[in-house]
C-alpha cells in the first residue's frame, strides 16, 4: 500500500524523510523489514544496510542478490525507483568500530535517524566466543555508534522471546542475571578456544544454548548502555513464513519448525522429540515486522529511559491471543503439505511426535538409523558413495537442538504489544497489521505449505500433479514395507512359539 494521498498515516509520517540504518539486512527478518519500509513508507529518505563481504562478494553485489529475491518483485513492479533508496555500507557489527570506513562512519553519525539492530547469529550451537562477539559486542558497537548520532530518533534492539527461557513466566521487561555483560565479554576476550569450550557448559547455567544465552547477555548490555538513548527491545517468538506481505508464504530458511515441516514433507524426518500438547509459539515474519516498525514509532514518542527498568520491551508472541499446539502445527502443515507434495520427496509423510526422549531414541534407531544403514549398504554394494547415514547424523543433531523448545512451554505477557495495537488508528491498522489475535491459522498454513514448496524448495506449483502421482507411489511403497515388516515379525513370533512348544 502507498501513502493515502500526499500525506501518509501517522506511522508513515514518522518515517517521512527518515534515514534508517539496518543491521542484519541480509537475514530473514532484515529482508522483510527493508521491503516493508520501502513499500509502505515510500517517503523515507534512505535505508543504509550494513553488509560485510562474504564468499568473494562485496556488499554491493550481496545487496543486488537480495533484490533479486521474489520477496521484492511486488515493490519492483510497482515502484522500481525505490530500490535506489537503499545504500550498502561495508561493515561488520562484530568488528571494532563496526569495521566502518572513516567516511561511512561520519555519514552515519550525521545522517541516521532510525536504527533497527537485527543482526545476530541464530545458530543454536554457535561457538561461545563467536556468539558473544556477534550478539553481545555487536550490540555494544551499535549502541556506541548510536550515541554519536546527532539526529537519532529511535533505536530498536531485536532480541528473542526465548532469551529468558530459564524462566517459566516471561514479562515485557529487562531482567537482571547472575552474570553481567562485562564479565561474559571479559571471559570471551581472555581465554583460549580450548578453555572456552570447556567452560561453556558452566557459563550457560540454565540456558540451553549459546544463542539464547548471548541474546540474554545482549539485553543485559542494553539495560546498562541503552540508558539515555531512545531505545526499545523487540522480542519476536519463532518467526516463520509471511502471512500475506508482500507475498503469501515467503520464506528463505530451514530454521526450527520449517526444517521439521520440510523434513517430514520429504519423508526424511520420521520422529521428533516434541510434546504435541505444548504451544508452538510461531509468528508470521511480516506481522512481526509490522509490529517492529510500529514499536519504533511508539518508542520515539516516549521519554528517554533514565534507567534500565524504563526501557520499553515488546514480546511479540502468539501464545497469549492465538495459541497453537505442536500437534496442531504438525496436523495443519501435513494436511496442507500433502496437497502440494515436493517433487524431491524420498518417502511419504509419516511423522511421530514423541515427548519422551527414550521413546524418541528408539524411533530414531528404527526409522532413521537402521534404514540409513540398509540403504548405504546397498549403495556400497553398487559402487556408489554411501551418504544417507551422514545426512541423518545432521538431521538428528538438528532435532536434538530444537527439542528443548518443543518439549517445554512458557507463559508470556504481551500487554505492551496489545496496548500498541489499541493505540493505532484504523489506517495504520490496515497498513501495519500485527494483530496476532486475528490470525486465521487455517488460511496461514494453506499459504505456508505452498510457500515452502515454491520459495524454499524451488518447486513450481505447475509440477503438483506430477508430484502427487509420485506421492501416491511412495504411499503404496510405505504400506508395502509396513506389511512386509508385519509378516517378518509374525514369522519370527511363530518360529519362537514353535521352538518353545
TrEMBL record:
Entry GO terms, CC: membrane; peroxisome
Domain (Thioester reductase (TE)): residue spans on this chain: 22-291
GO-annotated biological processes: long-chain fatty-acyl-CoA metabolic process
InterPro entries attached to this UniProt entry: FAR, FAR_C, FAR_NAD-bd, NAD(P)-bd_dom_sf
Stretches assigned to the Fatty acyl-CoA reductase C-terminal domain: 367-459
Organism superkingdom: Eukaryota
Reported function: Catalyzes the reduction of fatty acyl-CoA to fatty alcohols.
Protein name, per record: Fatty acyl-CoA reductase
Gene that this polypeptide is encoded by: wat_4
Amino acid at each position: 500500500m502507498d501513502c493515502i494521498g500526499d500525506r501518509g498515516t501517522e506511522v508513515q509520517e514518522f518515517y517521512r524523510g527518515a534515514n534508517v540504518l539496518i543491521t542484519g539486512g541480509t537475514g530473514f527478518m532484515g529482508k522483510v523489514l527493508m521491503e516493508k519500509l520501502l513499500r509502505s513508507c515510500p517517503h523515507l529518505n534512505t535505508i543504509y544496510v550494513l553488509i560485510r563481504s562474504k564468499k568473494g562478494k562485496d556488499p554491493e553485489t550481496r545487496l543486488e542478490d537480495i533484490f533479486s529475491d521474489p520477496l521484492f518483485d511486488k515493490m519492483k513492479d510497482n515502484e522500481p525507483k525505490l530500490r535506489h533508496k537503499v545504500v550498502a555500507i561495508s561493515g561488520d557489527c562484530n568488528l571494532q568500530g563496526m569495521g566502518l570506513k572513516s567516511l561511512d562512519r561520519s555519514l552515519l553519525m550525521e545522517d541516521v535517524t532510525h536504527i533497527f539492530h537485527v543482526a545476530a547469529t541464530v545458530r543454536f550451537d554457535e561457538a561461545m566466543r563467536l556468539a558473544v562477539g556477534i550478539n553481545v559486542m555487536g550490540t555494544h558497537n551499535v549502541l556506541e555508534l548510536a550515541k554519536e548520532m546527532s539526529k537519532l530518533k529511535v533505536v530498536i534492539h531485536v532480541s528473542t522471546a526465548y532469551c529468558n527461557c530459564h524462566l517459566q513466566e516471561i514479562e515485557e521487561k529487562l531482567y537482571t542475571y547472575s552474570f553481567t555483560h562485562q564479565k561474559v565479554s571479559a571471559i570471551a576476550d581472555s581465554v583460549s578456544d580450548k578453555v572456552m569450550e570447556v567452560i561453556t557448559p558452566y557459563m550457560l547455567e540454565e540456558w540451553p544454548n549459546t544463542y539464547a544465552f548471548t541474546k540474554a547477555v545482549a539485553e543485559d548490555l542494553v539495560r546498562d548502555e541503552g540508558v539515555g538513548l531512545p531505545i526499545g527491545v523487540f522480542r519476536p517468538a519463532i518467526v516463520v513464513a509471511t502471512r500475506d506481505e508482500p507475498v503469501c508464504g515467503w520464506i528463505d530458511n530451514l530454521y526450527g519448525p520449517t526444517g521439521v515441516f520440510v523434513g517430514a514433507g520429504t519423508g526424511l524426518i520420521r520422529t521428533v522429540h516434541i510434546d504435541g500438547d505444548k504451544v508452538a509459539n510461531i509468528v508470521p515474519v511480516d506481522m512481526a515486522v509490522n509490529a517492529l516498525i510500529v514499536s519504533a514509532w511508539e518508542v520515539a514518542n516516549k521519554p528517554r529511559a533514565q534507567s534500565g527498568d524504563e526501557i520499553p520491551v515488546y514480546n511479540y508472541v502468539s501464545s497469549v491471543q492465538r495459541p497453537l499446539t505442536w500437534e496442531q502445527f504438525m496436523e495443519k502443515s501435513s494436511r496442507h503439505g500433502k496437497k502440494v507434495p515436493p517433487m524431491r520427496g524420498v518417502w511419504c509423510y509419516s511423522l511421530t511426535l514423541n515427548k519422551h526422549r527414550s521413546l524418541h531414541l528408539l524411533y530414531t534407531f528404527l526409522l532413521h538409523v537402521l534404514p540409513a544403514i540398509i540403504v548405504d549398504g546397498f549403495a556400497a554394494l553398487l559402487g556408489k558413495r554411501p551418504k544417507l547415514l551422514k545426512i541423518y547424523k545432521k538431521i538428528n543433531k538438528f532435532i536434538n537442538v530444537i527439542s528443548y523448545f518443543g518439549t517445554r512451554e512458557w507463559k508470556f505477557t504481551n500487554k505492551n504489544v496489545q496496548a500498541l495495537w489499541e493505540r493505532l488508528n484504523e489506517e495504520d491498522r490496515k497498513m501495519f497489521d500485527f494483530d496476532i489475535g486475528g490470525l486465521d491459522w487455517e488460511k496461514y498454513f494453506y499459504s505456508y505449505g505452498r510457500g515452502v514448496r515454491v520459495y524454499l524448495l524451488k518447486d513450481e506449483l505447475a509440477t503438483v500433479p506430477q508430484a502427487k502421482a509420485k506421492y501416491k507411489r511412495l504411499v503404496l511403497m510405505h504400506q508395502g514395507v509396513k506389511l512386509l515388516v508385519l509378516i517378518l515379525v509374525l514369522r519370527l513370533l511363530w518360529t519362537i512359539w514353535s521352538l518353545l512348544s
